[in-house]
Amino acid sequence: MDIRGYDDGRKTNVIILIVLVGGIFAGFGLDRSISGWTDTSRMYIIGIPGNVGVGQVSKVTFITFDNNEAIGNANITLDGAASGRGTTDTNGRLELSINATTNGSINVTAEKTGYKNATSILMATPGLIISATPSSITSGTASFVTFSVSGLGKPVEGAALGLSGAGISIDGVTNSNGQIILQLNPPNTGAITAAAKKTGYSDGSTTITSASQQTLSVSSSHSSVTVNFPVFVTLTVTAGGSAVNDAVITLSGAASGSAITNQDGKAILSFTSASTGTITASASKPGYAGGSVAITSAGTQSLSLASSPSSVTAGVPTYVTFTVTSGSNVVSESTVTLTGAASGNGVTNQNGQVILQVNSTGTGTITASATKNGFSGTSTTLTAVGQPTLGVSASPSNITNGVASYVTFTVTSGGSAVSGATVSVSGGGITADAITNSQGQATLQLNAAASGTISVTARKTGYIDGITTLAH
């Protein structure tokens, strides 16, 4: 059975209705002429269609008329397999939504004062109900859709199914489970109507949607790369704000390569551009419109190097942080080398940083150079300054032999107190040490002998010793 032309739309019903009504009026007029009717109060009623489905809502148009003219304002009553009521309009028409609950006949009665009652019968037969999974597919993409046909709550085997719309036309027949699986590949967007027919059942239909394809969006962790320099680039594919897995990414232009996105829509590609220009990363997946992103392949980029701090003290080991960048990006795996008043080297981490202990052998300039394949090198300088000198004073500065005395020593440098300095006292029968506090002071109890010089020395790493004497 070929039902591709099937259409249960309202337009078709209206056309049928007009033809039928014209024919009915003509037929009744001819019949009256032949039989010589004289009874002008006789009224007739018809329902279109004359068959409705059980368990589904059907729209039926009722028409009341006598001879060749419509009769308006007639009261319509339904009973039997379905119930309902209404009044025809001035054109003698009434549309009712009928939901028959059982098989059988639906009695239709039309009443109006001055006319004999008119009767007719509608037949209620099981209606075919169709469901489709999925109910929406993508145009231009082959998809399997399962159609299930049932009647009175049970699967219907052998129902003829016809599909039309969105550029497709397919027929099929349901199996013993009331199902049929069809592969659809609509070339257009829009509604696809699935209509089912089987003898003993009223027709059923449903629609599925053929939607347009979503467009893939591609983003890159790098907007530019360097010629002849290997790099790992993370590419992310999304559609409508959601990650797209199993999308194929292909590179073209100044570099080549391919990868497939994971469940997060990401793929990591390792490649080396062969020339300057543009690298295009294109993403594709069945059911989606492709997308792409452009990456610039540039010539050798310049490195920049910064140090913190920018000066050290000669003879004092100091940790210095070196940071290597190129443009606004940090550069990992760059080698930093020291020459001049200090030596050493190291390799930057993923943050573009390396920490070196700088121990200058004397005052002067330390040159730090940064190099990496694919980049032009750069350098910066640090200053190695001389050590400051400690000053030490005693209060009191004169002690009495044989008398124990408390003496407070104050250590400074450049007018500022120096904490953590060691104060050593020796001579005159005294040997003692102390550490200055946060005010640069240390207090010792001393008891000098009769003869000998009492020497006081202040020491701290990074400073030149301070020396004084105590009188006694």
Kindly summarize this structure in a few lines.
About 5% of the residues lie in helices and about 55% in strands.
Structure description:
The protein is mainly beta. The chain folds into five domains: 10-126, Immunoglobulin-like; 129-211, Immunoglobulin-like, CATH 2.60.40; 217-298, Immunoglobulin-like; 301-385, Immunoglobulins (Immunoglobulin-like), CATH 2.60.40; 391-470, Immunoglobulin-like (Sandwich). The protein is built from one helix and 48 strands. A five-stranded mixed β-sheet has the order 2-9-8-5-6, with no helix packed on it. A five-stranded mixed β-sheet has the order 11-18-17-14-15, with no helix packed on it. Strands 21-29-27-24-25 form a five-stranded mixed β-sheet, with no helix packed on it. Strand 42 and strand 43 form a beta hairpin. The longest helix is centred in the first third of the chain and has 26 residues, at 10-35. Residues 1-21 and 25-39 have low confidence and may be disordered.
CATH fold topology of the largest domain: Immunoglobulin-like
Low-confidence stretches: 1-21, 25-39
What percent of residues are in strands?
Answer: over 45%
Strand order of the largest sheet: 2-9-8-5-6
Biggest β-sheet description? 5 strands, mixed
Taken from the alpha-carbon principal axes, the silhouette is: elongated
Count of distinct strands? 48
